[in-house]
Specification:
- This protein is mainly beta and 180 residues long.
- The protein contains 1 helix and 13 strands.
């Protein structure tokens, strides 16, 4: 309840809550949270998109805005919410928990942004923004990607990538991939 109140108090004017996810992301026995808001005052009716904000609240109640990773270059410099975007989710792998916000522009333009928590701060994973999805299935860390084939058989193709995770360095390392 306290983390939610801090989130609510820090929401910018002209925004509404989209989601609030609270859990022990870093496994230290205390709760942290990610909250998502969407802007009431910015809505593109033609594209059906609006600006979004992501907040992180650490276990001491310090709230910060999760900055949009501008190094991805081709997209806007703000988080976007539309019909292709998820409301945010928690993905668990063993005692590791990650906040995942999947932002989409359709097709291969859908990207999963992955955040973990360590020492009271959030971090963006090294594979964040590189794949269309991020999930754990049958105990395996997986991410999906799609691309357009330029040779027969033409059309969109999908791959599933498999990863191992090193908690000490916060690094995901690809250990294989296969057609989906």
């Amino acid at each position: 309840d306290d983390l939610y109140e801090i989130f609510y108090d820090n929401m910018e004017d002209c925004t509404q809550e989209l989601n609030f996810l609270c859990d022990d992301f870093d496994g230290n026995g205390t709760l942290e949270a990610f909250g998502i808001t969407i802007a009431d005052d910015y809505y593109d009716y033609e594209d059906g998109e609006c600006a979004a904000e992501i907040y992180f609240i650490n276990d001491h109640g310090v709230c910060s805005v999760v900055r949009y990773p501008k190094d991805h270059g081709w997209a806007d410099e703000n988080w976007i919410y539309n019909d292709f975007t998820t409301d945010g989710e928690i993905v668990e792998y063993g005692d590791n928990k990650f906040f995942v916000y999947t932002e989409g522009f359709g097709g291969p333009g859908i990207l999963a942004y992955i955040f973990g928590v360590d020492d009271e701060e959030y971090f963006e994973a090294n594979i964040s923004g590189c794949y269309n999805s991020f999930f754990v299935e049958n105990g395996k860390i997986q991410a999906g990607s799609s691309f357009i084939r330029d040779a027969p058989p033409y059309g969109r193709a999908f791959l599933v990538h498999y990863f191992k995770y090193d908690k000490a360095s916060h690094k995901f390392t690809e250990i294989g991939s296969a057609p989906a």
